[in-house]
């Protein structure tokens, strides 16, 4: 407990001390993006001021400095998710690009018209639309794992979806709407029984608890830096080396080639084969700094803190008349989606904003999930490592006050 000193943690995030509309900011939109600690901003500023040059091809001092930082970031990411090799870590712009990369390369390399991908009811649009694009371009079909009323995937029904045409399963580890923590290890185990690889959308898991890709045994994993206290515009795809070796490149350009002539081009070794163009090498350094910051706090401590907040907030919200919380999985992460009576989510969000409370409203890029729940949207509070019990109290008081206005 002593290690987790919330006051000193919050001092790393000056934005948390600002006011909005003359009220102290209560930032509960961490599922959309997190605030950045000073150490991340300092690291990026330091690189721009002292070591800025394009990476990989430069013989000069600054280019080598920047390259060292960029490649050190790859190693930090590799250790953070416990991948086996730096070759398994591809830098992208975020989760969305990561899923598009795998969808595009995997379909091109391993899917024929009529082949199938399995996703789930609760997926973010970024794990639905890329497959629909592939369906239109390559004639693949999409199968969907159903969900029960607690907001848990029905794995026995998933088992029924596998056919001889199933080529890939792509599911989220944590729902950005319900907070459900899906049993990825078990999903991977079952998929592998059918010889089918699994892609995991880790956008909402990496910031909240320890992820070990070797323990999960997933074949691909992707996440965004900006949801894990790192900068915007950078993310990661992990892939087992044996898979990444076999997949065709995603984009073409500089950095990803070995030799180019107009007759024939050969591609670079991993991981560069998947990294066309100048990467955001300052952002990768910022991301590594953020992951080091998380490690210094301890992912287990962060998880314990956020779970306490989530449990406390859930109990308190339930005392409000007409409260409906969505998602009752026993294994639930730092997200609470709710509605109160007939109050529209947008009205609730707008009025909470006037009290200085930042929440998200709407469909949360999960319209098929909203359809399953029979609603058009929710109000979502999502917690980060710096939120406090006092903030939860103010948030609940805010929801109570707004509810009383209707
Ligand atoms: N998947 C999930 C579960 C998410 O919550 C998000 C972000 N809301 C994404 C994917 C997309 O992430 P990004 O916009 O950073 O690419």
Give a short overview.
40% of the residues lie in helices and 17% in strands.
Strand content: 15-25%
Strand order of the largest sheet: 4-10-9-8-7-5-6
**What Rg, in angstroms, do the CA atoms define?**
22 Å
Straight-line N-to-C gap = 41 Å
Shape: globular
Let me know the number of strands.
Answer: 17
Kindly report the average pLDDT value: 97
Structural class call reads alpha/beta
Which molecules other than protein and nucleic acid are bound?
4'-deoxy-4'-aminopyridoxal-5'-phosphate
Helix content: 25-40%
Largest sheet: 7 strands, mixed
List low-confidence stretches: none
User: How many individual helices?
Assistant: 14
């Amino acid at each position: 407990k002593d290690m987790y000193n919330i006051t000193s943690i919050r001092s790393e995030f000056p934005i948390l001390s600002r006011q909005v509309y003359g009220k102290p900011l209560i930032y509960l939109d961490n599922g959309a993006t997190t605030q950045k600690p000073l150490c991340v901003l300092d690291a990026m500023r330091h690189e721009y001021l002292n070591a800025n040059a394009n990476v990989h091809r430069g013989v000069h001092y600054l280019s080598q400095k920047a390259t060292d930082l960029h490649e050190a970031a790859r190693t930090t990411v590799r250790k953070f998710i416990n991948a086996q090799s730096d070759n398994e870590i591809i830098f992208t712009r975020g989760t969305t690009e990561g899923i598009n990369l795998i969808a595009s390369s995997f379909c091109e390399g391993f899917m024929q018209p009529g082949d199938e991908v399995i996703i789930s009811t609760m997926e973010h649009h970024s794990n639905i639309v890329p497959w629909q694009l592939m369906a239109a371009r390559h004639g693949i079909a999409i199968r969907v794992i159903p969900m029960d009323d607690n907001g848990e995937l029905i794995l026995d029904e998933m088992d029924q979806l596998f056919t001889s045409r199933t080529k890939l399963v792509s599911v989220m580890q944590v729902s950005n709407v319900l907070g459900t923590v899906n049993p990825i290890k078990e999903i991977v185990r079952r998929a592998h029984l059918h010889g089918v690889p699994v892609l995991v959308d880790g956008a909402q898991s990496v910031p909240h608890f320890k992820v070990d890709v070797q323990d999960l045994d997933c074949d691909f994993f992707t996440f965004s830096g900006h949801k894990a206290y790192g900068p915007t515009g950078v993310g990661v795809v992990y892939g087992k080396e044996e898979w990444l070796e076999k997949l065709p490149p995603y984009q073409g350009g500089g950095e990803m080639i070995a030799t180019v002539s107009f007759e024939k081009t050969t591609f670079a070794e991993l991981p560069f084969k998947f990294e066309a163009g100048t990467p955001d090498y300052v952002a990768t350094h910022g991301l590594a700094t953020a992951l080091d910051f998380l490690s210094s706090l301890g992912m287990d401590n962060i998880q314990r803190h956020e779970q306490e907040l989530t449990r406390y907030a859930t109990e308190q919200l339930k005392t409000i008349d007409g409260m409906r919380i969505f998602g009752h999985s026993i294994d639930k992460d730092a997200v609470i989606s709710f509605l109160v009576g007939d109050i529209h989510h947008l009205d609730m969000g707008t009025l909470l904003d006037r009290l200085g409370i930042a929440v998200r409203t709407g469909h949360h890029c999960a319209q098929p999930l909203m359809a399953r729940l029979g609603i058009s949207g929710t109000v979502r509070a999502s917690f980060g490592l710096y939120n406090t019990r006092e903030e939860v109290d103010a948030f609940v008081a805010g929801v109570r006050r707004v509810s009383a206005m209707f």
